[in-house]
Amino acid sequence: MALKVAIVGRPNVGKSTLFNRLVGKKLALVHDLPGVTRDRKEGHAKLKDLELTIVDTAGYEEATAGKMEQRMWQQTKRAIDESDVVLFLFDARSGMQAYDEHFADLVRKSKKPVILLANKCEGKTQEQGIYESFKLGLGEPIIFSAEHSIGFDELYLSLKEIEEQKEKELPLDEIDTNTDEEESIEALKKKPIQVAIVGRPNVGKSTLVNALLNDERMLTGPEAGLTRDAITSRLEWKDWKINLVDTAGLRKQAKVTGAIEKMSVESTLYATNMAQVVILVLDADGILDKQDLTIARKVIDEGRALVIAVNKWDIANKQETLQKLNDKLDSSLTQAEGVPTVTISALKKKGLDKLLSAVIKVYERWNVRIPTAPLNKWFRDVQDQNPAPLGKNKRRIKLKYITQAKTRPPSFYIFSSNPEGLPQSYLRFLTNQLRDTFNLRGIPIRINVRKADNPYAE
Hints:
The strands form 3 sheets. A 6-stranded mixed beta sheet has the order 2-3-1-4-5-6, with helices on both faces. Strands 8-9-7-10-11-12 form a 6-stranded mixed beta sheet, sandwiched between helices. It starts with a strand and ends in a 7-residue tail after the last strand. The protein is an alpha/beta fold. Helix content is 36%, strand content 20%. It is built from 13 helices and 15 strands. The chain has helices spanning 15-23, 68-82, 98-109, 127-132, 152-169, 180-189, 205-213, 259-274, 290-301, 318-332, 352-366, 372-385, 424-438, and strands at residues 3-8, 41-47, 50-56, 85-91, 114-119, 142-143, 193-198, 231-237, 240-246, 277-283, 305-311, 341-343, 399-406, 411-416, 446-451.
């Protein structure tokens, strides 16, 4: 059973740097500007033989009720409450600050085991800050540098001791006795679907994640651009395991300013590229504007399955909005004809089952593999009805056979005597016929034409 570890501390002490170092990937945004992290971010880590679930949190700042900082602190408190152990970071170079002491009081009240890390100890100017930390009442600090990999052996020993104590306290039937081999077989049987939720700022992406999880997992509010990192949460629905990835809003490229927003955009695009299904959330008041279409085309060009969720449906002009949506899809998104669209209200938690059902259906289509025999029967029939056009030499282009090269998305090779002469219009015709015959509507399809080998060449 993985040990759940919350990394806490005031802003800009190196929490996200430590998170990235432990999980082995640059999943959390790191910048000199304080307050970059706003949501809880989880990742799996392995420190020697220790299995860890690491939670990065927002830095503590006092704020009045209802303000964004106060909601950020609520997320941090949730992370502490749900953790097995707390890693308390402070900046040894700048010494103790008022927020450090106030935060230490709150962490102590949680009654969770605490490991104190004196971060940024790569030089010799931190002695004063280390001595000052004893007044926090959290024990002796580990001399540490997340950026320069100092102190990780001591951190491992402290975590190992806490894990051993935790296992002694567990009832026998709660101890995970699965071997790595058993876990890998189980993972192969049913891997989680990677689902990224994308869209323009303030269309309700984080509210949708919270509604699907039935939990205030993500920081939400009227302010646009609250989400900065791509945050993953686990959901189980009708025996399906889903990794929901909430992402930062994508504005037009010309309007993206500042290092933080640029990093957020990169994080969103990375999450989209790594996803299997992408839910594009639209505001019912602004259906498929130019930026929405740009996002949708990027998803399809990357070969991902796409589902469109029209949010705030409870306050929309329904008939007019649907007509506008269908017109835009027919004229501007022909690359994946038949993209499923679902009307929802994330705030009122309406239409969520329909949305998840659409995700599962499009995911199954995205994974489909068509047997060679029925595929080639269809190929012969479609050519009998509408033969390939004449080539440059005024002879009919011969299309010999078709085979599916791979899935995710479905990709096909057609072998021809004259692949260069086949016009794109005929390839589009074949793609549409393929969609209709084998129920592949709404997903990207790849068809490549290759020159057939001459059996008498030798």
